[in-house]
Amino acid sequence: MTEARGPADRNGAAHDRYAPGAPCWVSLMVHGLAATQEFYGTLFGWEFRPGPQQLGPYVRALLDGREVAGIGQLPPDRRLPIAWTPYLASDDVDRTADTIRLCGGTVGVGPLDAEDAGRLAICSDPSGAVFGVWQAATHRGAGLAGVPGAPAWHELLTFESESVAKFYRTVFGYEQEPVVSADIDYLTLHLGGRPVAGLHGVGTSLPRDRGPHWLTYFEVADPDEALEHVVGLGGHVLKPAHDSEHGRVATVADPEGARLALLRSRR
Questions:
Q1: 159 φ, ψ (degrees, to nearest 5)
Q2: Which of 133, 144, 147, 230 has the fewest CB atoms in 10 Å of its CB?
Q3: Lowest mean pLDDT segment, chosen from 39-53, 201-215, 232-246
Q4: Which InterPro entries does the UniProt record give (predicted)?
Q5: What's the chain's Rg over C-alpha atoms?
């Protein structure tokens, strides 16, 4: 991963408009909405208010009064993988959806309007990794980034980076920067010279029950302390906290199995 941020200033406040292709929101669909709110509310200090209800009960998480993420409730008969899903900004979600199909991806939901908030589609790349596309109206996206309790980075874990990079490059116009190393398969995606997301090829190290998937890193003040909270709240530690060149990081799963990373960035 990288320590780069999304479109936020030094105080963590997001800009008014996200450039097309930039991760602008992250959302989680679960079976137990109230229990999930309690988990993340305690872990990150989030408060909640209702959001658009087209796909069922849905709330937006707020940190210091600014929206940072969404959590929705799956219908009882839907047995989908529980996962945090990043949304990539678009000026025209219908056109983006057409391009996704032409490039070998799949559009599973939408495009459809989310009341007056904007227009969305839920898609998957050719490897099967799920992501969303968001065309903003009244809801621009996350109002904070890279501060404790807010998303800090998004990373695609896939079999190998180059083939799927072509898909994202064609659909969203990313530039890419590979990590020059014989030991790691990693590409950083850039927009306007700024890093916005990463593609990490991990081969057979992908979880058997998960396949290629996007992983969201949430900034925390103390990953070790956060791990204690995760376990105490019914979550699981998948990879203990460890130091990296970009900061201290751990990977966990919430009580319903959604994977996320906890990061204290190097400043």
A1: -65, -50
A2: 147
A3: 201-215
A4: Anthracycline_SecMetBiosynth, Glyas_Bleomycin-R_OHBP_Dase, Glyoxalase_6, VOC_core
A5: 17
Q: Please give the Cα distance from 225 to 242 (Å, whole number).
A: 13
Residue 176 sits at φ, ψ, to 5 deg, of -135, 150
DSSP class per residue in 74-104 = --TT--PPP-EEEEEE-S-HHHHHHHHHHTT
Strands ordered across the beta sheet of 130-136: 47-50, 58-63, 66-73, 23-30, 84-89, 130-136, 118-124, 106-114
Question: Looking at residues 150-162, what average pLDDT do you find?
Answer: 95
Diameter of the chain measured on Cα atoms: 48
Q: Which amino acid is at 239?
A: K
Give strand pairing partners of 178: 187
DSSP 144: B
Both structure tokens of 48: 């909640």
* DSSP at 146: S
Q: Say whether pTM exceeds 0.85.
A: yes
CB 237 within 8 A of CB 252: yes
Question: Are the C-beta atoms of residues 152 and 219 closer than 8 Å to each other?
Answer: yes
At position 32, the amino acid (one-letter code) is G
Which amino acid is present at 87?
A: Y
Which residues does 220 contact at the CB level (< 8 Å), separation at least 6? 44, 148, 149, 226, 262, 263, 264
Proportion of the chain above pLDDT 70, given as a percent: 93
Question: Residue 101: what are its φ and ψ, rounded to 5°?
Answer: -65, -45
User: How far, in Å, CA of 83 to CA of 80, rounded?
Assistant: 9
Q: Please give the domain boundaries of the chain with CATH numbers for all domains.
A: 23-136 (3.10.180.10), 151-265 (3.10.180.10)
